[in-house]
Design brief:
Blueprint lengths: L1 E13 L10 E16 L5 E5 L4 E6 L4 E6 L5 H11 L5 E7 L9 H16 L6 H16 L5 H8 L2 E4 L5 E3 L8 E5 L6 H14 L1 H23 L3 H17 L5 H12 L4 E5 L6 E5 L4 H9 L3 E4 L8 E5 L1
Parallel strand pairs: 3-6
Antiparallel strand pairs: 1-2, 1-13, 2-6, 2-7, 3-4, 4-5, 7-8, 9-11, 9-12, 10-11
Helix pairs in contact: 1-2, 1-3, 2-3, 2-4, 3-4, 5-6, 6-7, 8-9
Bound molecules: (R)-mevalonate.
(R)-mevalonate binds next to α4 and α5.
């Protein structure tokens, strides 16, 4: 029997980091996906490989340990945690195909976690729905990262453009927000867990300064929600620029991220900001009518991803 599942990556429009402290956020699933295939092993070992990431490791699932054969460990802790929660430790082969650049800020860990859990549930014939899957995937992210909001795993599970409110209510936008965005990313990868911890420690050292910034980020996200509903792109762009400034205050922007943001704005983007955890990773630029100019400007020094928002969330199947 073969179980297959795939889940989309996401990009955060508003509210990264502040969402960890209960503030609202807006994120959308994009047309880049992680695909996970699970089948019974022909040997007595569990092996995880990813031809796209040039990665192979033997997994000691009972002990959450691995023996690296090839590549960088990166995503493996998420896979081990998912296996530990669901799998009966029988030997399986796990293959990951992904066109989501790892560490690019597009939520590759959430896409891989959601797809792995969905494939495992199918493999073991365990009933699940999107609600339980998003919850379980969030638990995996939390175990690995220490602190995580449910945002990435929610978007990877449900797909579409999602607003997560202060009381963790999920709302799906029913507007057509098919405006052109360009994502720029650097080859320097960010580490989400580390960035979240760094912000936490900055906040603990300077609560009177950082706490109001985090609640302003929440207010900004609520303004952005109204602007998106009205399709008022000029205001969305302006709010993205302010949000980038707040992320600078939190210390998650880097030289490369800011370079991409300013290159995008100089080339005509009406808004540009870091997206995701920062410390490396990616920026998102809103550029109606200026896609080529913005893409060319960013790609002088960094990389470009052409993405579209997608309504397609997780999907899974089993083949007997
Ligand atoms: C990472 O994509 C987004 C953060 O807000 C962390 C999280 O929400 O878990 C930085």
């Amino acid at each position: 029997m073969i179980a297959k599942a795939s889940a989309p990556a996401k990009t955060i429009l508003f509210g990264e980091h502040s969402v960890v402290y209960g503030e609202p956020a807006i994120a959308g699933a994009v047309n880049k996906r992680a695909h996970v295939i699970i089948k019974k092993s022909k040997t007595d070992r569990t092996v995880f490989r990813s031809p796209d990431l040039n990665f192979e490791a033997e997994l000691l699932t009972k002990h959450k340990k691995y023996i690296l054969k090839r590549g960088k460990p990166g995503i493996i802790r998420y896979i081990l945690e998912a296996l530990y929660k669901v799998h009966d430790h029988s030997p399986i082969d796990i293959t990951l195909y992904s066109n989501v650049p790892i560490g690019s800020g597009l939520g590759s860990s959430a896409a891989v976690t959601v797809a792995t859990l969905a494939a495992l549930y199918r493999y073991h014939n365990i009933r699940f729905n999107k609600h339980s899957l998003a919850h379980d995937a969030h638990m995996v992210e939390q175990s690995v990262q220490g602190m995580a909001s449910p945002l990435d795993t929610l978007v990877s599970t449900y797909g579409g453009l999602v607003y997560l409110s202060r009381n963790k209510k999920v709302e799906h936008f029913n507007v057509n927000f098919n405006v052109p965005f360009v994502v720029g990313y650097t080859t320097k990868h960010g580490n989400t867990g580390k960035m979240v911890k760094d912000v936490k420690s900055l906040k603990m050292r300077n609560p009177k300064i950082i706490n109001p910034v985090i609640s302003s980020m929440g207010n900004l996200t609520n303004y952005a929600k109204q602007a998106i509903l009205k399709r008022d792109f000029k205001t969305v762009g302006e709010l993205m620029n302010i949000n980038h400034g707040f992320l600078d205050v939190l210390g998650v922007n880097t030289l490369e991220l800011s370079r991409m943001v300013y290159n995008a704005r100089d080339a005509g983007a009406i808004g540009a900001k870091t997206t995701g955890a920062g410390g490396g990773g990616s920026i998102i630029a809103l550029c109606p009518g200026k896609v080529d100019e913005v893409a060319n400007a960013i790609s002088r020094d960094d990389n470009i991803l052409k993405i579209r928002f997608t309504r397609k969330g997780v999907s899974s199947r089993v083949y007997k």
